[in-house]
Write a structure and sequence with these properties.
The chain has 178 residues and is an alpha+beta fold. Helix content is 60%, strand content 14%. A 4-stranded mixed beta sheet has the order 2-1-3-4. A hairpin with a 2-residue loop joins strand 3 and strand 4. Helix 1 packs across helix 6 and helix 2 runs antiparallel to helix 6. The chain is elongated, with a radius of gyration of 21 Å. The mean pLDDT is 90.
Length: 178
């Protein structure tokens, strides 16, 4: 088992009794911290500098993220800094999402459409997906794109189902043109 998976399993043991929306909040905070670490040289320097003690780093981060309502996430961050394992954060998040999806019978889904979906359309998609995937919770994030021309593109758990007009036209084109 990988170190990242061990961290994720330890967090999952702590978070599992919480509600789904609270677990999603923790994961969202971790994703923000991971993006910040990956994209901000100043943030990486603060976390990696040997000139500050662990306590000084924790104090600065606690002050900077005082609005974050997740002591558990901050403790993980402090531990990863201390162990010099921040590079594992992306993988930890991935493992946590897998545990969340299984533990809460949850399917996060991104739907790309030409126009915003109406609530009754979203409800129909949710009911259908719950039946197809045997899950209790579906989270639909909408994305708009003029490129698809019409129809929908579904993305979930690393899979893509393209029912867009553009994809259908492309399929016809490849059949007609050798």
């Amino acid at each position: 088992m990988t170190t990242a998976k061990n961290y994720a399993l330890a967090l999952w043991d702590i978070w599992q009794p919480e509600k789904l929306n609270r677990v999603n909040y923790h994961i969202d905070v971790l994703q923000i911290l991971e993006r910040l670490y990956r994209k901000s040289r100043d943030f990486r320097t603060l976390l990696d500098t040997p000139t500050l003690s662990q306590r000084q780093k924790e104090d600065r981060l606690s002050h900077a993220f005082r609005e974050v309502d997740s002591v558990k996430v901050m403790k993980l961050l402090f531990l990863l800094i201390e162990k010099k394992e921040m590079r594992l954060l992306e993988r930890i998040i991935h493992e946590l999402k897998l545990l969340r999806n299984t533990g809460f019978s949850y399917l996060p889904l991104e739907v790309t459409t030409l126009r915003s979906l109406q609530q009754d359309e979203i409800d129909t998609i949710e009911v259908s997906l719950k039946e197809i995937f045997h899950v209790e919770h579906v989270s639909i994030k909408q994305k708009l794109s003029e490129k698809i021309l019409g129809g929908m593109v579904f993305e979930f758990e690393g899979h893509k189902l393209d029912t867009s007009l553009k994809a259908k036209l492309h399929k016809i084109e490849t059949k007609l043109l050798p």
